[in-house]
Amino acid sequence: MKKSETALVVIDLQKESGFGIVGLDGVVRNTQRTIDACRAVGIPVIYTRQINRHDGVGLSLDEPRHANGEPQFYADNRDSIEILEAVKPLDTDIVIDKYRWSAFFDTRLDLMLKSLGVKHLIIGGVVTDGCLMTSVFDAYFRDYRIQLVHDMCTASNEGAHMAALTIMANWVYALEVLDTDNMIQCLEGQDYAAWHADEADALQFTPDTLRDTFGKLTAPSSSSPK
């Protein structure tokens, strides 16, 4: 990793809680630790916010609405669109507003990254099987190398979280998966452990084996030292 070519992207750590998110407190703590470590070495921090117009203009097809027609989630007339206070951006940080799940779809994120000379992303956020996963795939399609910090991510249920992380690990070849402790060690120039695929579809799973397969992805003992 060249720190001068790296940015941290924090996906949608907002006050919206209408659909429920598992283990969010731990994700927020790990995100703040990673933010602090990135700032300490001069790596820019970029936040995304999911936003829906309260009048429904531009809303995704068939997205849930209240009886009055307003979007159920992330309506721009509610405080739920704001980033959580515990990881609140500084004035010097970049905040990207988006109207679809991917942080790259019809946003200025790619432009900001290219302006900063970024080729490598550290990424985490919510939800793993939605906005995070689509952003990771879109980053890969734009030729960014990615370090996905798995304990900075979560979803509305554990199964979706595990499946999404495993699918990303299987098919995003320019991806390392690691936890917060190892990410910080990497940022500090120390040896660290991470998972990286050495073949396509390396973590095949069935409904019965998903938990064990996910353990191979996230257990430090199964990671490769860097």
From TrEMBL:
Residues 6-170 form the Isochorismatase-like domain. Gene3D superfamilies: Isochorismatase-like. Keywords: Hydrolase. SUPFAM superfamilies: Isochorismatase-like hydrolases. Pfam families: Isochorismatase. It comes from Vreelandella salicampi. The keyword Metal-binding does not apply. This is Cysteine hydrolase. One of its GO terms (molecular function) is hydrolase activity. It comes from the Bacteria.
